[in-house]
Amino acid sequence: MLDAKPIGTEFHAGRYGHVPKPSLKFALPLDTPPMEAKLLAELPKEGGPWQYEPKWDGFRCLAFKRGDEVELRSKSGKPLGRYFPEIVAMLRGLKARQFVIDGELVIELEGAPSFDALQMRLHPAESRIKKLSAETPAHLIAFDMLADTGGVVLLDRPLRERRAALAKFMKTAAIRRKLILSPVALTRAKAMRWLGESGGATDGVVAKRLDDPYQPGERAMAKVKRIRTADCVVGGFRYESDGKLVGSLLLGLYNSQGKLDHVGFTATISDAGRPALTKKLEKLRGGPGFTGNAPGGPSRWSTERSSQWQPLKPKLVVEVKFDQVTASRFRHGTRLMRWRPDKAPHQCTFAQIAPVRKSRQA
Question: Sign (positive/negative) of CA torsion 324, 327, 331, 337?
Fold first, then answer.
């Protein structure tokens, strides 16, 4: 293992690959990529010892400080400080003069995390950002320390040492509802409980080897998400770009007023099954479609689907697999599991995706 070295010195290749040189201003370059995780079907049982952490539902963030200079960088390396001025001001006000920490930016609304509120910050108008930062302030959840308050780079140190350094730092730096130390578990049993409770404030569980160094840009951790299923009404569909075959199904759930709200989509339709499914759907066209919240234009993540959607009679029910819900909608596209001819459409309500009741994790 390399000896850690203070700011301003060379710090090249370690036993686990390239380690960036420090910049002149901060202990690490601003383009240092965060260590990432591979998605696994279940929490690892072997290859440890492991440290488990909640997978927070926010924006990944590396926070750099030296003197009065503070920089926040996203997973892709883009600056975030402009969009979260309250976090920059909070870190600038800490007694510690320098550090680099890895964490997650989270905004809570009515006691629950809001990914939509985070996305609203990515707005070009400074006046709008200033208003939102005052009305819905973010907080930073810290879970790793890459350089300590003395400017010592910790990338090549094992996680157990980095966590100890972070815990020591947070004893005096933590600020309620502003700068928070992420809880950890050292037993798989506790991590399994966290996994079962995820789907609201947390998005799953991350597993890290206690003996591993920090490996920038490498998928050297493991993450497991709590996958759930829901029965949804097919309230409409979109054609593929050529307009001949179905491209995606638009999913709905009935709200407390008995209206069908659009909650997401699924595009996991086999090519072989598209012609027959298209004919089936076209026979149901002309229905009311979504009587509550309706779909907008095409997905901003895909240009393959037509912007026009076809409303259907609420006759078909499908079971889909999903991982996260934000603002009463599926965050990502869902996976079609099976058709449910045995399920009545009116049984497909929001009760299926209600937030999981959580026990305290800390």
Answer: positive
